[in-house]
Amino acid sequence: MVELxxxxxxxxxxxxxxxxxxxxxxxxxxxxxxxxxxxxxxTMIKLLLKEIDATSGVVTVNxxxxxxxxKKKIPEFRRTLGFVFQDFRLIPSxxxxxxxxxxxxxxxxxxxxxxxxxxxxxxxxGLQAKSNSYPDELSGGEKQRVAIARxxxxxxxxxxxxxxxxxxxxxLSYEIVELLKGINDCGTTILMVTHEHDLVRHFGGRIINxxxxxxxxxxxxxxxxxx
Length: 227
Hints:
It contains 7 helices and 10 strands. The protein has helices at 41-48, 74-78, 96-106, 111-124, 140-152, 170-185, 197-203; strands at 2-10, 16-25, 30-34, 56-61, 64-65, 81-84, 158-162, 189-194, 205-211, 214-221.
């Protein structure tokens, strides 16, 4: 679960990035976060990842009170999350399999578990034929699928996807959201940050709109396939 209670963030420059924001996302939810550049979306992500602290208010993610989280506990907390970057951030010298397995090796997961889990998530994103390919041999859409598999491999409670369709062809954007929806259907909470309103209108669901550091809209809307 993600909960922000009366959260404000003021940077040292004096910029008020978030202003008294309250938000609750329950386990298993899928929510789009939309807003123009500078609206406060990136600040919210940094809060949820414990990259910055709230100036005031309380931030709770996956049972962790981030206001009280000690520095030594941050890696443990972050292992409950998966994060999908807009620019993929794959390691060029590693194959698809190795990029995904790396996440588990870092946390000393058993080798037997890695050998079982990695092919499973590769199959979930439909890249079985690309397991031994390197990032520069993949299309943009394939790279993003690897990034999603990497975010998923540690079986996180929550995946935050930051503009995951920003660097791929528009027609592939729908496939990526469908993939995230499928992961959500299996129980993982998904928070997808995007500026692509066409995607949001197509899929519908819970839409959270941030404008000038405040939530101005938080409703569930129907997608184009719904009556």
